[in-house]
Every structure is written in structure tokens, then in C-alpha cells.
Amino acid sequence: MRPAQRQAAHAELAKQLRAGGPVPCRVAPDPEAWWSQREGDAARSAAAVAACRSCRVRVACRDYGMLAGEEFGVWGGLTPVDRGAARHGGRT
Ligand code: SF4
Fold first, then answer.
1. φ/ψ of residue 65, rounded to 5
2. What is the distance in angstroms between the CA of the first residue and the CA of the last residue of the chain?
3. pLDDT given for residue 89 in this prediction
4. What count of Cα atoms within 13 Å lies in the side-chain half-sphere of residue 23?
5. How far apart, in whole angstroms, are the C-alpha atoms of residue 66 and residue 76?
6. Low-confidence residues of the chain: pLDDT under 50
7. Distance (Å) from CA 56 to ligand 1 centroid
8. pTM of the prediction?
9. What is the distance in A from the centroid of ligand 1 to the CA of 60?
10. Would you tell me the crossing angle of helices 3-19 and 58-67 to the nearest 10 degrees?
């Protein structure tokens, strides 16, 4: 991953976040669902993924999560497992 790509993706995500209203992960009653890494939290993680589908910045968030190589959390509706699969040739 090239730092310039990561910076550009982060800048685009930040710009889109500033441009509009709240996004689901910032207003959800259970924001920790986006960071569920613990065993037994599959349902919470699935809820976060579902909430991302209606997010106005989903594509930029997904792209940043992928380009930055984020190891944790749900980004743009992709879990760490989803991102790993996409990096290894899968499509999401
Ligand atoms: S797409 Fe990104 S910004 Fe939107 S709710 Fe999901 S994690 Fe939050």
C-alpha cells in the first residue's frame, strides 16, 4: 500500500464526512458494534455491516479501509475477514 493512496483515500473520506449529516456508526446506540472483535459478537458485527449499507459515505469508507490495510473494525460494510478475502482476489 502506497502512503499517497492511503492519504488520498483518508482525505476523501474526511471530506465526505464533513460534507453532510451524521453517519450510522457515529449515531448508533451501539457504536462498539463496529469494533466487535470478541467471540460471540457476530450478531453485533452483522448489525454494523447492515447499517453501513445505508451510509452516504460507504464507498469512500470501504476504499479507505481497504487501502489503509485496516486490521480491525467494520469499514464501509466490510469486516476484517471481508477485507482479507477481497485482498486475496475475492469480490465484495
Ligand atoms: S460506511 Fe463507514 S462511516 Fe458509514 S457507517 Fe459504515 S463505518 Fe461508519
1. -55, -40
2. 19
3. 81
4. 24
5. 9
6. none
7. 8
8. 0.91
9. 9
10. 160
